[in-house]
Amino acid sequence: MLKNIDPLLNAELLYVLRAMGHGDVIVVSDTNFPSDSTAQETVHEELLRVDAPAARVVKAILSVMPLDFAVEHPAMCMEVQDKPEEVPEVRTEVQQAIVDAGEKYKLLPIDRFKFYDMAKESYAVVTTAERRFWGCFMLKKGVLPPEEG
Predict the structure, then answer these.
(1) What total number of domains does the chain contain?
(2) Range of the domain at 110
(3) Residue 149 reports pLDDT greater than 70
(4) Active-site residue 22, yes or no?
């Protein structure tokens, strides 16, 4: 156990978050996403697992990782197929986790098949215990400014 580190951040996930650079993307997926096959095509090539709801996993990740301020949409989600205006509860919860982390960005909905393609280009995929549909998200890593003083 480590002080001030969210216990959901297991050793493998912490390693990946630390290894990622500015602009790298991590996918947080629900249990229905083709996580393992997608993960095999990412930079990390291995699936990460955290057995918690998607919003809770996003909260843990954002406790140590800033979002990229250099792009317009550093946080994205899979949109509901054939109902792009629909906002599932899981998306609302993840948006709140982003706000609670002090980030100002709104989730950008992405077409399901485009999301799949983009996920294969990501750094890593973490699958969650999220069983609600449309609980898939992408977070683009930002930078930490130098300490002043």
Answers:
(1) 1
(2) 43-140
(3) no
(4) yes
